[in-house]
Structure prediction request, 234 residues.
Amino acid sequence: MALGHRLPEGVKSVVTDALGLVTLLVAGLSAVEVTNPALVAAVGEGVPMLVVLGSLLIGGIIGSLLGIERRLAALAGVIQGWTSRHASASTEVSRTADVTDEHAPLGEPTARERFIEGWLTTSLLFCIGPLTILGSLSDGLGLGIDQLVLKSSLDLFAAMAFAASFGVGVLFSAVSVGVVQGSLTLIGVALGSIVPDAHIAALTAVGGLLLVGIGLRLLRIKDVPVGDMLPAIW
Prediction:
């Protein structure tokens, strides 16, 4: 954040676009798990695509009925308001947080919108992907934390870049990561080696498509309601 406030708006935009493109790259690498031999062997030739489609449709419908994205946005707004009230009035962060819808330049996102977008985007990006699933499960299974160390290193640089554009909302994604990765680790502990490779492949493929939605949002191409589709990965 300290670096981001010194960067021109054009630089911040380029950083966000670059992250959007990289997100699409990671999404593609994850989505190809739909062709994983273990998944094909488990469900049959041509069926993995239907599994992914069904997961997205059913998960999206459930998430939309539950209003997950709307609830996440509301919760993020509450946290952003709390942060604004407790921030020092003398800091640049506080001055940014005090911007309201009425005072924001026409067409520019408000502080609340930036907080919500930062928290939701980074939470989804850091919580969905092969390293999140495989790393956490490997940790729970007692196979080591090598994959999580790699993921943490990648997340560090991504978080620095996102914070330059979205601000303090990125910080709160640590809570989401802790809950999701912690839960997956506990699942690994409980299930041991029972979790089949086909299941992991299906989760990774679905997560990859959700990452495509995130990439489209970052590139300002399409505001895909990725939050509502989160039940698809379960």
